Amino acid sequence: MYCPFCRHPDSRVIDSRTSDDGLSIRRRRQCPECGGRFSTTETASLSVIKRSGVVEPFSREKVVLGVRKACQGRPVTDADLAVLAQKVEETIRSTGASQIEANDIGLAILPPLRELDEVAYLRFASVYQAFESLEDFESAIEALRAEHGRLPARPVE
Predict the structure, then answer these.
(1) Phi, psi of 51, rounded to the nearest 5 degrees
(2) Are 73 and 54 spatial neighbours (Cβ–Cβ below 8 Å)?
(3) Are residues 35 and 52 in the same domain?
(4) What is the residue range of 93's domain?
(5) Phi, psi at 15, each rounded to 5°
(6) Which of 4, 45, 64, 155 would suit a FRET pair with 134, their CA atoms being 20 to 30 Å apart?
(7) Per-residue tens of pLDDT for the chain, all 157 residues
(8) Do 27 and 102 belong to one domain?
(9) CB 92, CB 99: distance < 8 Å
């Protein structure tokens, strides 16, 4: 770690603390050359493998953008989406993998989105679970109803 004051190529760690969210470490450092003190924040890198094979860093913003489309017209705030993106990142990091496929991120979005808004969940799930027919939607709706203890709607005769 280069000293930001004198550019000396080394520094000594004085103190280390885990951040409030537990996803990063804050280190207080001191330069042995000039004595300057500074802080660094360290996080484990998380990479996404896209369908095309390209690898890029994980981005909460991209999670929010993808989910925002499914939430159009729904009572979901930007703060709700930020919390959802944080939950998704925590879920992915808890796997311990340093690289994850883009489709797995989509699947990790489903449980917290289901809690947030069921209509947005169905919209998003129709893409990531590859719904191909009305029966796929009906199955997903029946699963939601069963979860809530509601009986399926009876057909009108």
Answers:
(1) -60, -30
(2) no
(3) no
(4) 47-136
(5) -150, 145
(6) 64
(7) 889 999 999 999 999 998 776 678 899 999 999 999 999 988 878 899 998 999 999 999 999 999 999 999 999 999 999 999 999 998 998 888 889 999 899 999 999 999 999 999 999 988 877 788 888 888 888 988 888 775 555 454 4
(8) no
(9) no
Q: Is 143 left (phi over 0), alpha (psi -120 to 50) or beta?
A: alpha
**H or E segment to which residue 38 belongs:** strand 37-43
The number of domains in the chain is 2
Check whether residue 123 and residue 63 sit in a common domain: yes
Task: State whether 98 and 31 are in the same domain.
Answer: no
Burial class of residue 102, CB neighbours in 10 A (0-12, 13-18, 19+): middle
Burial class from Cβ neighbours inside 10 Å (0-12, 13-18, 19+) for residue 44 reads exposed
Exposure letters 57-84 (e unless 16+ CB within 10 A, then b): ebeeeebbebbeebbeeeebeeebbeeb
- pTM for the whole thing? 0.66
Instruction: Tell whether 23 and 90 lie within a shared domain.
Output: no
In a domain, 1, yes or no: no
